[in-house]
Write a structure and sequence with these properties.
There is one protein chain. By secondary structure, this protein is α+β, with helices and mostly antiparallel strands. The chain contains 27 helices and nine strands. The strands form three sheets. It has a four-stranded mixed β-sheet with strand order 2-1-3-4. The protein has a three-stranded antiparallel β-sheet with strand order 7-9-8, with helices on one face. Helix 12 crosses helix 13 and helix 22 crosses helix 23.
Length: 545
């Protein structure tokens, strides 16, 4: 009731009270405790640093929201604390702030109530406040309630909706993986127990797109969704159509790339059982490559785009800091799906052209072989000599084609792919090489230039006085590399980096640098920003923030 009265007053006054989100207390933290005692409120503290990208994302995209301001200004005395200022080190130590951002909830006497690290969506941030204030069950309590009544599908639905936000703030990789496995099993139970007809709603569609693995293989569950496509579009909206179109596109692309004629079946579906979804696509000229690149800056990636790029369900859960930012970008993501099937047709034409070229080459080689054989007969040339000349001709032709391919690849790069040795050799242990290889594998495409570009940025930081002077220090700097806090880096380290990643890491430590990014210290996922930079392997590199 009190919250309702506040909202009405806000509207009558022109919406200026909370229109800008959280109103942070201007005094010290000790002064905030005194204010909290007077107003009988809890204290919320945002520990941040000026250089911290995720901190800026929270400040810009979460703290400024009116709904956040309405709740937090009523329930908490809110304070921002710069963790790097000397005067605040006592609070950093007391509340064990080891990464940024760290969000701390305190009693007026300074006693810790709750502490979470990393970015949050607006919904998860408000939910965390409600849990601290005792207005909502914690995730663990909700899960325990479900375990006591495991046949309650409504409770299971609530658990799955809140699971990403809970798992994303777990600090220990072993705890994170335990819950990932547990939630994955719960999801499988949910979609196999609940009839497809009862899953055709917005809440359950959100669960499906969060947890369902889309790997380019035929999926019986997604085929069930397609069988009910009209109902999904009617009850969920055009996003359901876009999601199922992406599944069909992944099937088409995988089959087309492998040279299997079955891909034509999935192409034809755009005129058959997928037509209703295809008709929703707007007329825009956006390639699938550019579409997939539209992701991640400051956590503002759409869940739809995450689905298209995630390797597995665990990868999703580890990226849950970003999941609830869907609404702001859904419309743009849908627009970017337009030319999926046009590009499928382009793939088909490309394959046919390649097949024709191979046939032409085969005919040419056969012709040369015939000519050489005729010359051998006419001149009584030794057959071994003729065969040697034939093999040489084949080798020369193959070398020519390979040279043309490499030249074309280089021309399509659009950047200076010169590899220099200007960096100088860096002292590094075997563990440092492995750690560098693992973060390269997490952050870059598995090709030499993409990996070396990221390695160049990391080692540029090592050599700069503005950043830590060790490889480990740079990689584990608070809030800098998403795979660190999501647990993906630990997963790669446990499995072991690829041989290519290890090779690039060792080359970089020995002094190799990619000329195109030799002066760069930062990178973001391309397509998520309009800032100028060098685009290499789905990453955009730039010298300064």
């Amino acid at each position: 009731m009190k919250a309702l009265i506040i909202i009405v007053v806000w509207l009558l006054m022109g919406g200026n009270i909370f229109g800008q989100g959280i109103e942070f207390f201007s005094g010290t933290l000790d002064e905030a405790f005194e204010r909290a005692k007077e107003e009988k409120k809890l204290v919320f503290v945002d520990f941040y640093a000026d250089w911290c990208g995720p901190c800026k994302q929270l400040a810009q995209d979460v703290f400024t929201k009116p709904e956040v301001g309405i709740y937090y200004n009523e329930k908490f005395i809110c304070v921002k604390v710069n963790a790097e200022e000397v005067s605040n080190k006592v609070y950093v130590k007391k509340y064990k702030v080891t990464s940024l951002p760290t969000l701390v909830y305190l009693q007026p006497d300074g006693k810790l109530v709750s502490s979470v690290s990393g970015t949050m969506s607006v919904e998860d941030f408000i939910m965390e406040g409600r849990i601290v204030a005792g207005e909502e069950l914690s995730f663990e309590a909700l899960y325990a309630k479900y375990k006591a009544n495991s046949k309650d599908m409504k409770l299971l639905q609530q658990v799955l909706v809140r699971a990403p936000g809970f798992v994303s703030v777990l600090e220990k990789p072993v705890d994170k993986q335990k819950w990932v496995t547990r939630v994955e099993d719960l999801y499988k139970k949910y979609i196999t127990t609940k009839p497809i007809e009862e899953l055709i709603n917005k809440d359950d569609f959100k669960i499906v797109r969060t947890f369902h693995k889309m790997d380019g293989k035929e999926d019986p569950f997604l085929e069930k969704m397609i069988a009910h496509l009209d109902e999904y579009i009617e009850n969920v909206g055009k996003y359901a159509g876009a999601y199922l179109l992406e599944y069909n596109n992944k099937m088409t692309s995988r089959l087309a790339r492998s040279g299997k004629k079955e891909y034509e079946k999935y192409v034809e579906r755009v005129r058959g059982d997928m037509k209703a979804a295809y008709d929703l696509m707007p007329e825009r000229n956006v390639s699938p490559y550019d579409r997939i690149k539209y992701m991640y800056e400051h956590g503002n990636a759409t869940l739809l785009e995450m689905l298209f790029s995630a390797e597995n369900m665990a990868d999703f859960i580890n990226k849950a800091d970003f999941i609830e930012n869907l609404s702001e970008y859904d419309k743009t993501a849908l627009d970017d799906l337009k030319n999926i099937y046009k590009n499928i047709e382009d793939q088909k034409n490309t394959l046919e052209t390649q097949q024709d070229s191979l046939l032409d080459l085969k005919d040419e080689l056969k012709k040369k072989q015939t000519e050489l054989q005729e010359k051998a007969k006419a001149t009584s040339t030794n057959l071994t000599e003729v065969q040697a000349k034939l093999e040489k001709a084949k080798a020369e032709e193959a070398a020519r084609l390979e040279a043309e391919r490499l030249e074309q690849l280089q021309q399509n790069g659009g950047y200076d792919d010169t590899i220099t040795n200007n960096g100088g050799q860096i002292d590094a242990s075997a563990d440092d090489v492995t750690l560098l290889a693992a973060i390269l594998q997490c952050e870059a495409h598995q090709n030499y230039d993409s990996l070396l570009a990221v390695a160049t940025v990391i080692l540029n930081r090592v050599e700069s006085p503005r950043f830590p002077n060790t490889i480990r220090g740079v990689i584990y700097a608070s809030g800098q590399f998403e795979p660190v806090w999501t647990g993906r880096l630990d997963a790669v380290l446990k499995k072991g980096p690829t041989s290519l990643s290890m090779q690039v890491a060792q080359d970089a430590i020995n002094g190799a640098r990619l000329a195109a990014v030799a002066d760069c210290y930062y990178f973001l996922y391309a397509g998520s920003t309009n800032r100028p930079g060098v685009n290499i392997g789905n990453n955009l590199f730039f010298p300064s923030w």
